[in-house]
Amino acid sequence: VHVVESGGGLVQPGGSLRLSCDVSGLQLDSSSIGWFRRAPGKGREAVSCLKTTDNTTYYTSSVTGRFTVSVDGAKNTVTLEMNSLRPEDTAVYYCAADPSTWATVQAMCVMMGERWFKHWGQGTQVTVSS
To answer: What is the pLDDT of residues 43-57, one digit of tens each?
Structure first.
């Protein structure tokens, strides 16, 4: 399984970015997907989780209403749309995938976090600065 993120970059506060996650070797329409981020000097935190079997999603409170995760099963691609970006969103963003879907998205992101996901991308840098 290969996971590759793209779409990071430098954006001004209030701007938008779209991150893409290309997944190969995994049936994306029956998987769980997570977006995580690691800010400078901090640990990796869960941003959003998606379970493609029922399209349930979870967002951490700091991004709720600003970020949206979606999946294109035909292209095996997951997208994280990020709007109204803030300097505190600056981080390396990681996409993760796993074939297991028995848990709720809350459990994946909050209770299990990184431990839930087997397959990880290399990360893409997002910098929000004026």
So the answer is: 999 999 999 999 999
Name the more confident of 68 and 26.
Answer: 68
Please, are residues 108 and 116 in contact by the beta-carbon 8 Å criterion?
yes
Length of the chain: 130
For tokens 């994280």, name the residue.
80
What pLDDT, on the 0 to 100 scale, is given for residue 94?
98
* Residue environment code for 40-60, b if the CB has 16+ CB neighbours within 10 A, otherwise e: eeeebebbbbbbbeeeebbbb
Contacts of 22 (CB under 8 A, 6+ apart): 2, 3, 4, 6, 75, 76, 77
pLDDT score recorded for residue 74: 81
* Segment (H or E) for 25: none
Report helix, strand or coil for 86: coil
